[in-house]
Design goal:
Layout (H helix, E strand, L loop, with lengths): L3 E4 L2 H13 L6 H20 L15 E6 L4 E6 L6 H7 L8 H6 L5 H11 L10 E9 L8 E6 L4 E7 L5 E8 L9 H12 L6 E9 L8 E10 L16 H12 L7 E7 L5 E7 L15 E6 L2 E4 L14 E6 L8 H6 L1 H25 L16 H34 L4 H7 L2 E3 L2 E6 L1 H6 L8 E5 L3 H5 L5 H5 L5 E3 L4 H5 L4 E2 L2 E5 L13 H24 L6 E4 L8 E4 L7 H9 L10 E4 L4 H8 L4 H15 L7 H12 L1
Parallel strand pairs: 2-8, 12-14, 17-18, 17-20, 21-23
Antiparallel strand pairs: 1-6, 2-3, 3-7, 4-5, 4-7, 5-6, 8-9, 10-11, 11-14, 12-13, 15-16, 15-18, 19-20, 22-23
The chain binds adenosine-5'-diphosphate (ADP).
Adenosine-5'-diphosphate binds next to helix 2.
Length: about 650
């Protein structure tokens, strides 16, 4: 193949621009990304060679070499992994294969700091080389192809790249960075070792660098480090998770997290365990601090890598954790699975089932620990105030406050995903329910647990009341809450899209039933005294004739019309039958283009309200009034009248 010029996919050009402009203050991460690619390439070779051992050619020892040339101002990262065929170089180094790229690009703000954050989550990979290089040359040959079918790829990162045929004896890839002037610090063995130690110590392959020795200069000219031709490993070359916990520092755990997740922020928590028993495996699981941009995409993959006896098998092994824990990142290394396990096999394996159960429990207990730290101290911690505050104590308090804030941070990012677990993981439903937090009529922040709620329940209260709505404001102002407010009964306010669906799967908490205040007739049970009940019954009785007329007038819109005691200030509201789908969920499904059953709500009227009383006296406008009552109730809970123009006409007729 003679030299050919190709254009980068539009997104790549955009990404490159961003990489060079936003990641400027964090230059050294390019080395982590390129070494990680080299290590992946070796993992891939090892995997393919399971079936085709001849791919090893005569170099079975997989390794990464980092070399620099001061005169030429190049830094070269070489691996003897799987390598790239010519077409692969064109496809993989000119496009971004990841789904959701467009969406990612659209979220960029132009604010460099914020963008650097985002890009961190996205993972810049190979293109990060352009942070330090004004030209990158990639020379590669795919394992199994003849030397004459190598490829040279070159680009200045400006819009296009060149590809030509290359004869290359050695299998694998060399990435040659022609360093920018301001990146010369990386032409230094000591500096490179330091960066590799920081970011890549956990890589399980040896990372080799040429040994240097000091050579005195001639005639007092000063000496310099010169290469000796001898290569040595500069990393520990043992996968981090295989080391004992006590030998790993927090910093190393955090760096490992960053390298597998491409996240810039440290994780909120992690858990590292060796599980022994009928299935043996090691788990190292992390809870990130930030949700990725595509957490709610249907094709969002989980973040757990599967290894078998330290051999990398696959990324995003969905079978290892349920989907509602898809935000968890980490590594699971199994001692029992076969090396050639496929995704399909994973779904059926009993070992995987055990790993999945064990890992789910582990994540839930990590979350329980975070939640525990968020609870205020039971003894009212700061009752004692002293003037002299010990410095150390102050620091500890700072750290404790930080710990205490973690669960709220977690919940703000991932609470909505966690709720999916109610419908997905019946075995752990109670544990999940305990981890949920909501806003409520008694709290401004969304931190009320079911247990908090229960502790505050009124004498005689028999249910946990909640309401679902599109927004917090709509929930707070819903007419359905009026009687609860009057009686001082707390109601949980639920505004996540998944709430309605998830709550379908939770009918009680710790023996107390959950009751939507927008479903079924209100039965406040013992909370209503005899007098109130009697008054309500009498009102209903005397209102009966009007009720019959209302039912007739609204028979196309309302399933039923009845008198209620739940309203105080509002004339009417809509509710659905006890086990019916809520109007809000039906609307949501419709908006999403999905089939939703027609929900015919029940109209409940407040017999004491002047507008409702008017129905008895103003028979001339009965039909208009009835329809207005219904449509207003619909508006109040976030819906739209079927015929808005007719609604306006009716209101205007009355106003005039
Ligand atoms: P990612 O590694 O996240 O997929 P990159 O942009 O880093 O994204 O790399 C794109 C692709 O280029 C990789 O998926 C891989 O197929 C290929 N690639 C990159 N570096 C190497 C390498 N050293 N050896 C073989 N293939 C590589």
């Amino acid at each position: 193949m003679s030299k050919k010029t190709h254009s980068f996919q539009a997104e790549v050009a955009q990404l490159l621009h961003l990489v060079t402009h936003s990641l400027y203050s964090n230059k050294e991460i390019f080395l982590r990304e390129l070494i990680s690619n080299a290590s992946d390439a070796c993992d891939k070779l090892r995997f393919e060679a399971l079936d085709r051992p001849e791919l090893y050619e005569d170099a079975p020892n997989l390794e990464v070499r980092v070399a620099f040339d001061k005169k030429a101002r190049t830094l070269t990262i070489t691996d003897n992994g799987i390598g790239l065929a010519q077409q692969e170089a064109i496809d993989h180094l000119g496009t971004i294969a990841k789904s959701g790229t467009r969406e990612f690009m659209s979220r960029l703000t132009g604010d460099q700091k914020a963008d650097a954050q985002l890009i961190g989550q996205f993972g810049v990979g190979f293109y990060s080389g352009f942070i330090v290089a004004d030209r990158i040359t990639v020379e590669s040959r795919r394992a199994g192809l003849p030397p004459a079918e190598g490829v040279r790829w070159t680009s200045t990162g400006a819009g296009d790249f060149e590809v030509e045929t290359l004869t290359r004896e050695q299998r694998g890839t060399s990435v040659i960075l022609h360093l920018r002037e301001d990146a010369e610090e990386f032409l230094n063995g000591w500096k490179l070792k330091q960066v590799i130690g920081k970011y890549s110590d956990h890589i399980s392959l040896p990372i080799l660098m040429e040994k240097e020795e000091w050579k005195e200069g001639e005639d007092d000219k000063g000496g310099e480090m010169v290469p000796t031709g001898e290569w040595e490993a500069v990393n520990k070359a043992s996968a981090l998770w295989t080391r004992p916990r006590k030998d790993i520092t927090d910093e190393q755990y955090v760096e490992f997290y960053k390298s597998i997740s491409h996240d810039f922020e440290p994780p909120l928590a992690w858990s590292h365990n060796r599980v022994e028993g009928s299935t043996e495996y090691t788990q190292l699981l992390y809870i990130p601090a930030k949700a990725p941009y595509d957490l709610f995409n249907r094709d969002h993959k989980g973040g757990v890598k599967l290894y078998v006896k330290r051999v990398f098998i696959m990324d995003d092994a969905d079978a290892l954790l349920p989907s509602y824990l898809r935000f968890v990142k980490g590594v699971i290394d199994s001692a029992d699975l076969p090396l050639n396990v496929s995704r399909e096999l994973l779904q059926e394996s009993r070992d995987v089932k055990a790993i999945r159960e064990g890992s789910t429990k582990r994540v839930l207990s990590m979350l329980e620990d975070l939640a525990k730290k968020a609870a205020p101290p039971a003894d009212g911690g700061d009752a004692e105030v002293t003037d002299v505050v010990d410095k150390k104590e102050e620091q500890e308090e700072g750290a404790a406050a930080d710990e205490a804030g973690k669960y709220a941070r977690f919940y703000a990012e991932f609470g909505a995903v966690l709720k999916e677990g109610l419908g997905e993981d019946f075995a752990n439903r109670d544990r999940i329910a305990k981890l949920l937090r909501f806003a409520s009529t008694a709290s401004d922040s969304a931190n009320v647990s079911f247990a908090d709620y229960k502790a505050r329940m009124k004498e005689g209260q028999e249910a946990i009341y909640y309401i679902t709505a599109d927004t917090l404001a709509a929930a707070r102002n819903s007419p359905q809450l009026e009687v609860f407010r009057k009686k001082g009964i707390e109601v949980l306010l639920m505004t996540d899209r998944v709430d309605e669906w998830a709550l379908n799967y939770l009918t009680e908490f710790d023996g107390t039933p959950l009751q939507s205040v927008a479903k079924g007739a209100v039965d406040l049970g013992k909370l209503q005294d005899e007098e109130e009940k009697k008054a309500a019954e009498e009102a209903a009785e005397s209102f009966k004739p009007v009720l019959e007329k209302l039912k007739e007038a609204l028979k196309d819109k309302a399933e039923d019309v009845r008198v209620t005691t739940r309203l105080v200030d509002s004339p009417a509201c809509l509710v659905v039958q006890d086990h019916g789908m809520s109007m809000q969920l039906a609307r949501m499904l419709k908006q999403a283009g999905q089939k939703a059953p027609e929900v015919k709500p029940v109209l409940e009227v407040n017999a004491g309200h002047p507008l409702v009383k008017k129905l008895e006296s103003d028979t001339a406008h009965f039909d208009d009034l009835a329809n207005i009552l219904f449509d207003q109730a619909l508006l109040a809970e976030g819906g739209l009248p079927d015929d808005p123009a007719a609604y306006v006409r009716r209101v205007n007729a009355l106003l005039a």
